[in-house]
Amino acid sequence: MAIETDVERAVFFNTDDFGVAGTYTPSGGSASTVNGIFDKDFSLVEVGNQVGLESNDPRFLCRSSDVPSVASGDTLVVNSVTYTIRNIEDDGQGMTTLALEA
Fold first, then answer.
1. Residues 6 or more apart from 53 whose CB is under 8 A from it?
2. Per residue in 29-84, pLDDT tens?
3. Which domain holds residue 63?
4. What is the number of structural domains in the chain?
5. What is the pTM of this model?
6. In this structure, are residues 47 and 65 in contact, taking their beta carbons and an 8 Å threshold?
7. Of 93, 39, 99, nearest to 74 (Cα)?
8. Which of 10, 39, 81, 91 is deepest in the core (most CB within 10 A)?
9. Would 1 be classed as within a structural domain?
């Protein structure tokens, strides 16, 4: 059981502080604005100790209540870049991380 309310969770995503606004569009649905924290980690995976593969792993953390029926294949636009949602990680405590692909 979450210790904070949905209203309290919204404070983390205030666009005057850490949050950014994204435009979420479910497949065949209408767009809506969702605030969250966007992160685009860089990773380097070594293959056979000879070749390194570089990758960015964009992710968007938001309130689960803002994306109640999110599904793989839906889209999210952040900073004018359109991403396809590839994986949904609901923590069961009111927060969801969306793994994105440009």
1. 44, 45, 46, 47
2. 999 999 999 999 877 777 777 777 777 889 999 999 999 999 999 999 999 999 99
3. 6-101
4. 1
5. 0.86
6. no
7. 99
8. 10
9. no
